[in-house]
Amino acid sequence: MKELWSNSIRGLEPYSPGEQQAIDRLIKLNTNENPYPPSAAVLSALRDAVNADLRLYPDPEGKALKQTIADMHGLDPANVFVGNGSDEVLAHAFFALLKHELPILFPDVSYSFYPVYCALYGIKYETVPLDDNFRVNVADYARPNGGIVLPNPNAPTGMALRPDQFRSLLERCRNSVVAVDEAYVDFGADSLVPLVKEFPNLLVVQTLSKSRSLAGLRVGFAIGDANLIAALDLVKGCFNSYPLDRLALAGAVAALRDREYFETTRAQVVESREWLAKELSMLGFQVLPSSANFIFARHPLHDALEVQQQLREKKILVRHFTQQRIAGFLRISVGTDEECRRLVEAMRGILRDSGSRP
Ligand SMILES: *Cc1c(COP(=O)(O)O)cnc(C)c1O
């Protein structure tokens, strides 16, 4: 039947997201969603937006949302692009800014969507190995390239770089776009948004899915020089005039305005992360230092895939990646205190029952 398919899609492999199960009382620590609900102001804005205006198309430019984001950073709306989740924003960035003669660069251990976009758009890429401690070494990226994509904090390691480390990279790579995926930045890293005015080649991508508890609403955005934003707007205008619907626009503005709720919930997630990291270390896990809302850890004596499956039997989902370099690790999203406590309890039981194996 594939004769009916376009040639260009025949070899494509889609990104595989963590499973979304509707099992009762499941503890879901596999897709880095926020364990806390969206702010009450968001829910109320959404309810208000459920009205007869839904017969009308939404604002194609999302002006109110762009303005809200620009105001937060003392920038102009022309420095802001908004899209249907940061995955869509990233997809447009790959096509609009990262397809050149030279290959683009990203880490060997990173967000597994990047190679998927490259395959979709026919973009050449090279991966740059993390060092033995799973750190990004920015000096490794200072070579001829068609662009650079770096998540900060990196996924799935959770480890972050400091802005001064990026500064040297941005200075050395002025002729290519450096796209920094800040999906998890609010949980403990410093954003590069303040560097946007200084570096016309820097694109910062953020999302409301994680730190704003809105994975279900699908809102992401990019901040950068107006020239980069114009390229994204052009591609978006050739693809979908209305990527953000009326509800998404209303909810996103309300979420960004509720600073207090944001600060409270992110502090809570950070506190739970530290507790979880400490408990897992005491169970013998090697825990990478996380600046995100998840923990990346391996146990020297236990098979990660087996532990994942045993947790699953106890109705706790965590994520395991088959990529060889990280196959010994589990990525565990930070849940509520109660969820973290139950995860640790379950883990203790599993490690005890299965005994230590080399
Ligand atoms: C979650 C995530 C995204 C995508 O988030 P959206 O829900 O599409 O906004 C992008 N990059 C990384 C590294 C992520 O973990």
From TrEMBL:
Pathway named in the protein's UniProt entry: Amino-acid biosynthesis; L-histidine biosynthesis; L-histidine from 5-phospho-alpha-D-ribose 1-diphosphate: step 7/9
Reactions accelerated catalytically: L-histidinol phosphate + 2-oxoglutarate = 3-(imidazol-4-yl)-2-oxopropyl phosphate + L-glutamate
SUPFAM superfamilies: PLP-dependent transferases
Residue ranges occupied by any Aminotransferase class I/classII large domain in the UniProt entry: 26-346
Positions where N6-(pyridoxal phosphate)lysine occurs in the chain: K210
PROSITE patterns xrefs: AA_TRANSFER_CLASS_2 (PS00599)
EC nos: 2.6.1.9
GO biological process: L-histidine biosynthetic process
The protein's assembly and partners: Homodimer.
Protein name per the record: Histidinol-phosphate aminotransferase
Originating species: Candidatus Methylospira mobilis
Lineage of source species: Bacteria, Pseudomonadati, Pseudomonadota, Gammaproteobacteria, Methylococcales
Gene it is expressed from: hisC
